[in-house]
UniProtKB/TrEMBL annotation:
<feature type="binding site">
    <location>
        <position position="134"/>
    </location>
    <ligand>
        <name>NAD(+)</name>
    </ligand>
</feature>
<dbReference type="InterPro" id="IPR007698">
    <property type="entry name" value="AlaDH/PNT_NAD(H)-bd"/>
</dbReference>
<feature type="binding site">
    <location>
        <begin position="267"/>
        <end position="270"/>
    </location>
    <ligand>
        <name>NAD(+)</name>
    </ligand>
</feature>
<feature type="binding site">
    <location>
        <position position="220"/>
    </location>
    <ligand>
        <name>NAD(+)</name>
    </ligand>
</feature>
<dbReference type="GO" id="GO:0000166">
    <property type="term" value="F:nucleotide binding"/>
</dbReference>
<feature type="binding site">
    <location>
        <begin position="298"/>
        <end position="301"/>
    </location>
    <ligand>
        <name>NAD(+)</name>
    </ligand>
</feature>
<dbReference type="Pfam" id="PF05222">
    <property type="entry name" value="AlaDh_PNT_N"/>
</dbReference>
<dbReference type="InterPro" id="IPR008141">
    <property type="entry name" value="Ala_DH"/>
</dbReference>
<feature type="domain" description="Alanine dehydrogenase/pyridine nucleotide transhydrogenase NAD(H)-binding">
    <location>
        <begin position="149"/>
        <end position="297"/>
    </location>
</feature>
<protein>
    <recommendedName>
        <fullName>Alanine dehydrogenase</fullName>
        <ecNumber>1.4.1.1</ecNumber>
    </recommendedName>
</protein>
<dbReference type="Pfam" id="PF01262">
    <property type="entry name" value="AlaDh_PNT_C"/>
</dbReference>
<feature type="domain" description="Alanine dehydrogenase/pyridine nucleotide transhydrogenase N-terminal">
    <location>
        <begin position="4"/>
        <end position="137"/>
    </location>
</feature>
<dbReference type="GO" id="GO:0000286">
    <property type="term" value="F:alanine dehydrogenase activity"/>
</dbReference>
<feature type="active site" description="Proton donor/acceptor">
    <location>
        <position position="270"/>
    </location>
</feature>
<feature type="binding site">
    <location>
        <position position="198"/>
    </location>
    <ligand>
        <name>NAD(+)</name>
    </ligand>
</feature>
<keyword id="KW-0547">Nucleotide-binding</keyword>
<feature type="binding site">
    <location>
        <position position="279"/>
    </location>
    <ligand>
        <name>NAD(+)</name>
    </ligand>
</feature>
C-alpha cells in the first residue's frame, strides 16, 4: 500500500502521525511511505531520519494527498485540506466528528473512508488509540491548570500544593476514566486536595482503592457538582462518550457559584466539551475569562509536548496501520472488530451511530457499505 504522512497544519499542532521507526516497520512489510518535507521537525524528527528509515520525501501537502492510498494524520482535516481528499481514500486519524457538522458533511461529500482513532474499541470497551493521548492530556490538564492559577494569568494566585502552614488548592476532576485518573494522580502528586467524580460506583470503588490519600471520590450528579464547584480552585472536565458529543456537566449558571480566578480546563473540548462555556482555543491563545473564571480549552493539548505525544501515538497506532496496509481496509475491518468500530464515514455514508445521532443524519450499517464496496470493486 502507498501511505502518506502530511505535515499537520492545524494551529500549533507539532505532532506527526508516524515516527521514523514506524516508517521502517511499514517498509519492512513492503509498503511505500511518503512523508511531507519537515512533517516531523516539530516533534524532533528530521527529514534525514525518515529517509534513512526508507521514506520518500515530498515537498507539499498536495503531493502527499495526491499519491497516497492511506493518509495517516494526527488531527482531523481542516477546511484547506478537504478538496485534497480523494474518493475512497483511507484517512486514519482523530476525527471527533460529533463536535463538527462541517467536517462531517465535508467527509461525506468527499466519499472518503474515515477510520477514527477515537472509536477503535476493544471488547472491554477500552479505546486503545485514545488512551495514550488521554494520558498525556490528563497530566497536562494539571500542569496547565497550575500555571493559570497564577495571578499574572488571571487565576486565584494559589499554589497547587500549598506550603507548610498554607492549605493546598482544591482540584475537582469530573470523570474517572483515563484522563480523569491521570489528572487526579498528577494533582495529588503535586500535593493538591483532589475530589474525583464519576457516575459508576464500581469505578469509584476501584479509584478509592488505588488513589493516594489526598484524593476523595464522589458520585457525579448535578447537586454534588454544584456544591463542589463553589470550593474548587481548579476544575478539570474529563468526560468522554466514545464518538458522541460530551454532556454539559458544568453549566453557564454555575460560573456564578465559583470564586473569581477559578480555572476550568476542559479536556473534552474537541468532543464538544463538558463545560458549557468552553469553546476550542489554541496554544497560541489558550484562555479567555467569563464571569472572572479562567477557561483553558485547547483542543489539541498533547500538541504542546509533541515528542512525547508522537512516540506514544505511534506506539499505539502502528499495529493497526500495519493491518490496514497489509490487508486493505475492508479485509482488516472484517478480521478485526476493533478496527471495524473505527469506521465512521465510508463512501459518503455515516456508519457510526454517535455521529449520525449528533446531527440527525441517516445511519448505514458497516455490513451494507462493505457489500457495496465489494460490488463496486
Amino acid at each position: 500500500m502507498v501511505i502518506g504522512v502530511p505535515k499537520e497544519i492545524k494551529n500549533n499542532e507539532n505532532r506527526v502521525a508516524l515516527t521514523p521507526a514506524g516508517v521502517a516497520e511499514l517498509r519492512k512489510h513492503g509498503h511505500t511511505v511518503y512523508v511531507q518535507v519537515n512533517a516531523g521537525v516539530g516533534s524532533g524528527f528530521e527529514d534525514g531520519e525518515y529517509i534513512a528509515a526508507g521514506a520518500q520525501m515530498l515537498p507539499t501537502i498536495e503531493d502527499v494527498y495526491g499519491i497516497a492510498e492511506m493518509i495517516m494524520k494526527v488531527k482531523e482535516p481542516i477546511a484547506q485540506e478537504y478538496n485534497l481528499i480523494k474518493e475512497n481514500q483511507l484517512l486514519f486519524t482523530y476525527f471527533h466528528f460529533a463536535s463538527s457538522e462541517e467536517l462531517t458533511h465535508a467527509m461525506i461529500e468527499r466519499k472518503a473512508i474515515c477510520l477514527a482513532y477515537e472509536t477503535v474499541e476493544k471488547t472491554d470497551r477500552s479505546l486503545p488509540l485514545l488512551v495514550p493521548m488521554s494520558e498525556v492530556a490528563g497530566r497536562m490538564a494539571i500542569q496547565e491548570g497550575a500555571k493559570y492559577l497564577e495571578k499574572p494569568q488571571k487565576g486565584r494566585g494559589i499554589l497547587l500544593g500549598g506550603v507548610p502552614g498554607v492549605k493546598p488548592a482544591k482540584v475537582l476532576v469530573l470523570g474517572g476514566g483515563i484522563v480523569g485518573t491521570q489528572a487526579a494522580r498528577m494533582a495529588a502528586g503535586l500535593g493538591a486536595h483532589v475530589t474525583l467524580m464519576d457516575i459508576s460506583l464500581p469505578r469509584l470503588r476501584y479509584l478509592a482503592d488505588v488513589m493516594p490519600a489526598n484524593v476523595d471520590t464522589m458520585m457525579s450528579n448535578d447537586y454534588n457538582i454544584r456544591e463542589e464547584v463553589q470550593q474548587a480552585d481548579l476544575i478539570v472536565g474529563a468526560v468522554l462518550i466514545p464518538g458522541a458529543k460530551a454532556p454539559h456537566l458544568v453549566t453557564r449558571d454555575m460560573l456564578k457559584l465559583m470564586r473569581p480566578g477559578t480555572v476550568l480546563v476542559d479536556v473534552a473540548v474537541d468532543q464538544g466539551g463538558c463545560i458549557e462555556t468552553c469553546r476550542p482555543t489554541t496554544h497560541e491563545d489558550p484562555t479567555y475569562v467569563i464571569d472572572d473564571v479562567v477557561h483553558y480549552c485547547v483542543a489539541n493539548m498533547p500538541g504542546a509536548v509533541p515528542y512525547t505525544s508522537t512516540v506514544a501515538l505511534t506506539n499505539a497506532t502502528l499495529p493497526y496501520a500495519l493491518q490496514l496496509a497489509n490487508k486493505g481496509w475492508q479485509q482488516a475491518c472484517r478480521d478485526n472488530a476493533e478496527l471495524r468500530l473505527g469506521l465512521n464515514v465510508v463512501g459518503g455514508k455515516i456508519v457510526y451511530k454517535g455521529v449520525a445521532d449528533a446531527f440527525g443524519l441517516p445511519l448505514t450499517t458497516v455490513d451494507d457499505v462493505m457489500t457495496e464496496e465489494a460490488v463496486a470493486n
